[in-house]
Amino acid sequence: KLFFTDYGNAAKVERCDMDGMNRTWIVDSKIEQPTALALDLINKYVYWLDIYLESVEVVDYQGRRRQTITKGRQIRHLCGLALFENYLYTINSDNLSILRINRYNGTDVRALARLDNAKEIRVYQKRTQSAVRSHACEVDPSGMPGGCSHICLLSSSYKARTCRCRTGFILGSDGRSCK
Protein backbone atom coordinates (compact mmCIF):
# COMPACT_ATOMS: atom_id res chain seq x y z
CA LYS A 1 0.00 0.00 0.00
CA LEU A 2 0.92 3.63 -0.54
CA PHE A 3 -0.08 6.11 2.20
CA PHE A 4 -0.22 9.88 1.63
CA THR A 5 -1.65 13.17 2.87
CA ASP A 6 -3.63 15.78 0.95
CA TYR A 7 -4.72 19.19 2.15
CA GLY A 8 -6.25 20.57 -1.04
CA ASN A 9 -10.02 21.20 -1.13
CA ALA A 10 -10.68 18.60 1.57
CA ALA A 11 -7.81 17.61 3.86
CA LYS A 12 -7.32 13.88 4.37
CA VAL A 13 -4.99 10.96 4.92
CA GLU A 14 -5.38 8.30 2.23
CA ARG A 15 -4.07 4.95 1.06
CA CYS A 16 -4.13 3.11 -2.26
CA ASP A 17 -2.52 0.14 -3.97
CA MET A 18 0.93 0.78 -5.46
CA ASP A 19 -0.66 1.06 -8.92
CA GLY A 20 -2.97 3.86 -7.70
CA MET A 21 -6.11 1.73 -7.60
CA ASN A 22 -8.42 1.23 -4.59
CA ARG A 23 -7.90 4.74 -3.27
CA THR A 24 -9.38 4.94 0.25
CA TRP A 25 -9.77 7.83 2.67
CA ILE A 26 -8.47 6.88 6.11
CA VAL A 27 -9.02 10.25 7.84
CA ASP A 28 -11.28 12.97 6.44
CA SER A 29 -12.72 14.75 9.49
CA LYS A 30 -11.14 17.01 12.10
CA ILE A 31 -8.10 17.41 9.87
CA GLU A 32 -6.85 20.60 8.18
CA GLN A 33 -3.22 20.58 7.07
CA PRO A 34 -1.58 17.13 7.33
CA THR A 35 2.01 17.68 6.25
CA ALA A 36 3.91 14.52 7.17
CA LEU A 37 3.20 10.92 8.02
CA ALA A 38 4.95 7.84 9.36
CA LEU A 39 3.89 4.20 9.40
CA ASP A 40 4.08 1.55 12.09
CA LEU A 41 4.40 -1.42 9.72
CA ILE A 42 4.22 -4.03 12.48
CA ASN A 43 1.08 -2.82 14.27
CA LYS A 44 -0.44 -1.16 11.17
CA TYR A 45 -0.78 2.43 12.42
CA VAL A 46 -0.50 5.74 10.56
CA TYR A 47 0.86 8.80 12.39
CA TRP A 48 0.60 12.32 10.96
CA LEU A 49 1.38 15.96 11.75
CA ASP A 50 -1.35 18.57 11.29
CA ILE A 51 0.39 21.94 11.45
CA TYR A 52 -2.87 23.93 11.31
CA LEU A 53 -4.54 22.04 14.17
CA GLU A 54 -1.13 21.83 15.90
CA SER A 55 -1.39 18.11 16.60
CA VAL A 56 0.27 14.75 16.07
CA GLU A 57 -2.33 11.99 15.72
CA VAL A 58 -2.57 8.29 14.94
CA VAL A 59 -5.13 5.85 13.46
CA ASP A 60 -4.99 2.24 12.35
CA TYR A 61 -4.85 1.40 8.63
CA GLN A 62 -8.68 1.43 8.44
CA GLY A 63 -8.97 4.87 10.06
CA ARG A 64 -10.16 3.54 13.41
CA ARG A 65 -8.80 3.97 16.95
CA ARG A 66 -7.85 7.61 16.41
CA GLN A 67 -5.79 9.18 19.19
CA THR A 68 -4.00 12.47 19.69
CA ILE A 69 -0.35 11.94 20.63
CA THR A 70 0.45 15.58 21.40
CA LYS A 71 -0.95 19.07 20.77
CA GLY A 72 0.49 22.53 21.06
CA ARG A 73 1.93 25.55 19.31
CA GLN A 74 5.30 23.82 18.83
CA ILE A 75 3.69 21.49 16.24
CA ARG A 76 3.31 24.29 13.66
CA HIS A 77 7.12 24.34 13.29
CA LEU A 78 7.53 20.61 12.74
CA CYS A 79 8.32 19.02 9.38
CA GLY A 80 9.01 15.43 8.46
CA LEU A 81 8.06 12.46 10.60
CA ALA A 82 9.71 9.10 11.19
CA LEU A 83 9.01 6.25 13.59
CA PHE A 84 11.42 3.91 15.32
CA GLU A 85 10.55 1.70 18.28
CA ASN A 86 8.73 3.81 20.91
CA TYR A 87 9.51 7.20 19.41
CA LEU A 88 8.50 9.56 16.64
CA TYR A 89 11.29 11.72 15.20
CA THR A 90 10.73 15.08 13.55
CA ILE A 91 12.50 18.32 12.64
CA ASN A 92 11.69 21.61 14.35
CA SER A 93 12.17 24.12 11.51
CA ASP A 94 12.11 27.04 13.97
CA ASN A 95 15.36 26.09 15.72
CA LEU A 96 16.59 23.31 13.33
CA SER A 97 16.60 20.63 16.01
CA ILE A 98 15.77 16.95 15.74
CA LEU A 99 13.02 16.11 18.22
CA ARG A 100 12.17 12.76 19.72
CA ILE A 101 8.57 12.30 20.90
CA ASN A 102 7.35 9.29 22.86
CA ARG A 103 4.55 7.89 20.68
CA TYR A 104 2.65 6.61 23.70
CA ASN A 105 3.17 9.63 25.96
CA GLY A 106 3.44 12.80 23.88
CA THR A 107 4.70 14.81 26.85
CA ASP A 108 8.11 13.09 26.67
CA VAL A 109 9.71 15.38 24.05
CA ARG A 110 13.47 15.75 23.79
CA ALA A 111 15.70 17.75 21.42
CA LEU A 112 18.51 15.46 20.25
CA ALA A 113 20.69 17.51 17.91
CA ARG A 114 20.73 20.53 15.59
CA LEU A 115 20.95 20.39 11.80
CA ASP A 116 21.25 23.18 9.26
CA ASN A 117 18.37 23.42 6.79
CA ALA A 118 16.80 19.97 7.39
CA LYS A 119 13.21 19.49 6.13
CA GLU A 120 12.75 15.72 6.27
CA ILE A 121 13.85 12.83 8.46
CA ARG A 122 14.08 9.07 7.93
CA VAL A 123 15.23 6.23 10.17
CA TYR A 124 17.27 3.52 8.46
CA GLN A 125 17.82 0.49 10.63
CA LYS A 126 17.78 -3.20 9.80
CA ARG A 127 14.89 -3.89 12.20
CA THR A 128 12.67 -1.35 10.39
CA GLN A 129 13.03 -3.19 7.07
CA SER A 130 10.58 -6.04 6.65
CA ALA A 131 11.70 -9.22 4.90
CA VAL A 132 10.82 -9.26 1.22
CA ARG A 133 8.93 -12.28 -0.07
CA SER A 134 8.70 -13.17 -3.72
CA HIS A 135 6.32 -10.84 -5.53
CA ALA A 136 4.59 -10.28 -8.86
CA CYS A 137 7.15 -7.68 -10.05
CA GLU A 138 10.21 -9.91 -9.78
CA VAL A 139 12.37 -9.98 -12.90
CA ASP A 140 11.40 -12.83 -15.21
CA PRO A 141 13.91 -14.99 -17.18
CA SER A 142 13.90 -12.48 -20.06
CA GLY A 143 14.89 -9.64 -17.68
CA MET A 144 11.51 -7.90 -17.53
CA PRO A 145 10.04 -6.96 -14.13
CA GLY A 146 6.85 -8.97 -13.71
CA GLY A 147 6.88 -9.66 -17.42
CA CYS A 148 6.21 -5.96 -18.12
CA SER A 149 8.20 -4.32 -20.89
CA HIS A 150 8.49 -0.97 -19.06
CA ILE A 151 7.10 -0.53 -15.52
CA CYS A 152 5.69 -3.07 -13.07
CA LEU A 153 3.55 -1.85 -10.14
CA LEU A 154 2.34 -4.10 -7.35
CA SER A 155 -1.45 -4.13 -7.20
CA SER A 156 -3.90 -5.34 -4.55
CA SER A 157 -1.43 -7.88 -3.11
CA TYR A 158 2.16 -8.98 -3.55
CA LYS A 159 0.86 -11.65 -5.96
CA ALA A 160 -0.85 -9.15 -8.33
CA ARG A 161 0.69 -6.54 -10.60
CA THR A 162 -0.20 -3.90 -13.16
CA CYS A 163 2.04 -3.04 -16.12
CA ARG A 164 2.43 0.61 -17.13
CA CYS A 165 4.34 2.37 -19.89
CA ARG A 166 6.78 5.26 -19.93
CA THR A 167 5.59 8.60 -21.30
CA GLY A 168 4.88 8.47 -25.02
CA PHE A 169 4.00 4.76 -25.06
CA ILE A 170 0.68 2.93 -24.74
CA LEU A 171 0.03 -0.46 -23.20
CA GLY A 172 -0.56 -3.21 -25.75
CA SER A 173 -3.57 -5.53 -25.74
CA ASP A 174 -1.52 -8.18 -23.92
CA GLY A 175 -1.39 -5.90 -20.86
CA ARG A 176 2.42 -6.27 -20.70
CA SER A 177 4.13 -4.74 -23.71
CA CYS A 178 4.34 -1.03 -24.53
CA LYS A 179 4.10 0.42 -28.03
TrEMBL record:
Source organism (scientific name): Grantiella picta
Transmembrane parts of this sequence: none
Protein name per Swiss-Prot or TrEMBL: LRP1B protein
Stored Gene3D superfamilies: TolB, C-terminal domain
Start-end of each LDL-receptor class B repeat: 1-43
A GO term for molecular function: Wnt receptor activity
GO annotations of cellular component type: plasma membrane
Gene symbol of the encoding locus: Lrp1b_1
Gene Ontology BP annotations: canonical Wnt signaling pathway
Family matches, as InterPro entries: 6-blade_b-propeller_TolB-like, Cueball_EGF_LRP_Nidogen, LDLR_classB_rpt
Alphabetical list of PANTHER family matching this protein: EGF-LIKE DOMAIN-CONTAINING PROTEIN, VITELLOGENIN RECEPTOR-LIKE PROTEIN-RELATED-RELATED
